[in-house]
Amino acid sequence: VQLVQSGAELRNPGASVKVSCKASGYTFTSYYIEWVRQAPGQGLEWMGRIDPEDGGTAYAQKFQGRVAFTVDTSRSTVYVELKSLRSENTAEYYCNRGGFRDWGQGTQVTVSS
Q1: Residue 13 to residue 32: CA distance in whole angstroms
Q2: Fewest C-beta atoms under 10 Å: which of 14, 21, 89, 103?
Q3: 34 near 48, Cβ under 8 Å?
Q4: Starting from the edge strand earliest in sequence, which strands make up the sheet with 33-38, in order?
């Protein structure tokens, strides 16, 4: 099993960014993908999840309306779009195959003017 994420991103405040997570080595539609972030000096924070089979999503309340999870089953890839970025969004973002110890390598998103 592999989860490979897109590379580091630098954005200005107010911009948006889309991070990808490409899965391989298992039946992509059989397991949720969860998104977790870790801000500098903070612990892991669960953002939500997406069901690749039907695109159904669930978001932690803190992120509701500020992030969007999407899926492209033809590419076995899920995405998280972060909108209206602020400095507080600076963090390492990780995808995880739900319920398993399968993690992406992380994507650093830095928001700075």
Answers
A1: 30
A2: 14
A3: yes
A4: 9-11, 107-111, 91-97, 33-38, 44-50, 57-59
